[in-house]
Amino acid sequence: MLTQPPLYALHWGFQSHPSQVDGITRLPGQPWVAFQQFSGYVTVDDKEHRALFYYFVEAETDPASKPLVLWLNGGPGCSSLGVGAFSENGPFRPDGDVLIKNEYSWNREANMLYLETPIGVGFSYATNSSSSLAVDDKATARDNVIFLKHWFNKFPQYKQRDLFLTGESYAGHYVPQLAKLIIEINNKEKLFNLKGIALGNPVLEFATDFNSRAEFFWSHGLISDSTYQMFTNGCNYSRYVSEYYRDSVSPVCSRVMSQVSTETSKFVDKYDVTLDVCISSALSQSKVISPQQATERVDVCVEDKTVNYLNRKDVQNALHAQLVGVRRWEVCSNILDYDVLNLEIPTLPIVGSLVKAGVRVLVYSGDQDSVIPLTGSRTLVQKLARELGLNTTVPYRVWFGGQQVGGWTQVYGNVLSFATIRGASHEAPFSQPERSLILFKSFLEGRPLPEIF
């Protein structure tokens, strides 16, 4: 680990810093950048030797004036480093031996913190693994809030900074539960300046989210009328997933899912039904919320570049990362024992409590995702707005990115928003980076999405 940066490091954006030991001089193959990067470990349990790995990139310009944004990927068990930072909204994308600059990186607008959580994901580890890899939502939220507390000790200049929590997929569980703990802590002692949360294609209410899949398939021509009826009345998707995770798939659900799989075809990417290129294993962050039929196989070709890059020894050294208890860095953990039945516990009521506490909430949907379709998310946001008595403050309308329609949006009570990202997949910043950045900027600034181009 570096204690004194070499002289040439100054030309790569490295300066004196309270957390200099975690400073990244330069990542292998990285182009020149003016912003600073940091990565390393934060211990969340001394007794059990449990540590979470983070990657932090300061804003491209004037980081002292920009907010702090935590990004979490889903799974549960998939890496915010490999998926979020290196495939979606981080500053670089691996390409062979080099890193390519992402011109739509979210650190154009914020200081971005990526966390590999829970323990057992990516480079995060526990040396006493017997007691620590069986986790659930509650344990994950607890570790994440401890991480943030300790991370602020490394980076005290960010303690009073505006804080936003963001993520996608199963982060629809991670983020609201972390935000809830933050508010509980703040009620006793104001430690966090939490301003808002943004959730992309999130799991918020199991049945509504999952059962909107049938209508999405049917409306996009992926299944027949008769299969749509079976998928709605014979065995809906939430029933199938519940049975699957209890090892008790009924004959009727087996029959229906077999027919759905046949008609939708293994050659259509369920995470982007319009995509006709090879499927990214970043999409396997939804492996739990979309259990694969035996006949289906996710193609990992796009993610191979990230996997290969993060398994290089020189890269791991530059990141101050180590492999503990595993031989390779993986996009999604195969050693984590997550309580997948937590999936069935709705987080929508928690989101409602956040809105009541004055935390701004954005739910956004890539509109080509059939795994957590926009129809379910839109229904849930409308339901929440009704329950909270929020009036529409921005009526349902298009928003623009560049000179094209970027998607549609509706805002309730200036605190709860829904938006679609046109042409985007389950991983919206991966498939529509420019539109996703426009959405992100508007969210941070608390402004409605642009009405004109």
Automatic annotation (TrEMBL):
PROSITE patterns tied to this protein: CARBOXYPEPT_SER_HIS (PS00560), CARBOXYPEPT_SER_SER (PS00131)
Chief location bin: secreted
Xref: Pfam families: Peptidase_S10
Enzyme kind, highest EC tier: hydrolase
Keyword Glycoprotein (UniProt): yes
Domain of life: Eukaryota
Subcellular location field: Secreted
GO cellular component annotations of the record: extracellular region; vacuole
Keywords noted in UniProt: Carboxypeptidase, Disulfide bond, Glycoprotein, Hydrolase, Protease, Secreted, Signal
E.C. number: 3.4.16.-
GO biological process, one term: proteolysis
InterPro entries linked: AB_hydrolase_fold, Peptidase_S10, Ser_caboxypep_his_AS, Ser_caboxypep_ser_AS
GO molecular function: serine-type carboxypeptidase activity
Assigned protein family: Belongs to the peptidase S10 family.
PANTHER family membership: CARBOXYPEPTIDASE, SERINE PROTEASE FAMILY S10 SERINE CARBOXYPEPTIDASE
Summary of the function given for this chain in its UniProt record: Probable carboxypeptidase.
Name assigned to this protein: Carboxypeptidase
Species for this entry: Quillaja saponaria (Soap bark tree)
